[in-house]
């Protein structure tokens, strides 16, 4: 199974609502709720097409998929439903709403992806 070449750029273009790319999860991190209001658990996710990576959020209803181990580091996902959110500073992030797991993945990060947002600090993700 291959990831979709140029997927991150096409996702950020936001012009094709039927686009269902296959991307790799290269990182997940729980976002701690400091407001204490009992809001749904939130997870940050980093998706890669092997060339670029993009930060995003997992919809709260998908959080159990991280707990169960269905969404894991290096797995491959076909993004069936997502939205791109533009922050006030102009940075774009993706919100994952629906997906299909395409396998466990290669067990390592594919390529050496670079940030898709210009001006965003560079992060090092290790295999």
Helix content: under 10%
Query: How many helical elements?
Result: 2
Overall pLDDT: 88
Report the strand count.
Answer: 6
SSE succession: HEEEHEEE
Distance between the termini: 18 Å
Q: What's the shape?
A: globular
Strand order of the largest sheet: 1-2-3-5-4
Main sheet?
Answer: 5 strands, mixed, barrel
- Uncertain spans: none
Rg for CA atoms: 14 Å
Strand content: 35-45%
Describe the structure.
This protein has 127 residues and is mainly beta. Helices cover 9% and strands 37% of the residues. The chain is built from 2 helices and 6 strands, in the order αβββαβββ. The chain has helices at residues 7-13, 63-67, and strands spanning 22-31, 42-48, 52-58, 76-86, 92-101, 114-115. The chain has a 5-stranded mixed barrel.
Q: Main attributes?
A:
single chain; 127 residues; mainly beta; 5-stranded mixed β-barrel; 37% strand
Mind sketching the topology for me?
Elements: H1 7-13, E1 22-31, E2 42-48, E3 52-58, H2 63-67, E4 76-86, E5 92-101, E6 114-115
Parallel strand pairs: 3-5, 3-6
Antiparallel strand pairs: 1-2, 1-4, 2-3, 4-5
Short structural description:
With 127 residues, the chain is mainly β. The protein is built from two helices and six strands; from the N terminus they run H-E-E-E-H-E-E-E.
């Amino acid at each position: 199974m291959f990831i979709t070449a140029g997927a991150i750029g096409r996702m950020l273009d936001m012009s094709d609502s039927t686009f269902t790319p296959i991307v790799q999860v290269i990182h997940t991190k729980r976002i701690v709720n400091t407001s204490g209001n009992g809001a749904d658990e939130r997870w940050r996710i980093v998706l890669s097409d092997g060339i670029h990576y993009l930060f995003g959020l997992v919809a709260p209803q998908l959080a159990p998929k991280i707990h169960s181990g269905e969404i894991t580091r290096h797995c491959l996902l076909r993004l069936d439903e997502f939205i791109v959110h533009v922050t006030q500073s102009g940075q774009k992030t993706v919100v994952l709403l629906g997906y299909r797991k395409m396998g466990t993945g290669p067990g390592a990060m594919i390529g050496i992806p670079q940030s898709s947002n210009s001006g965003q600090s560079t992060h090092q993700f290790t295999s």
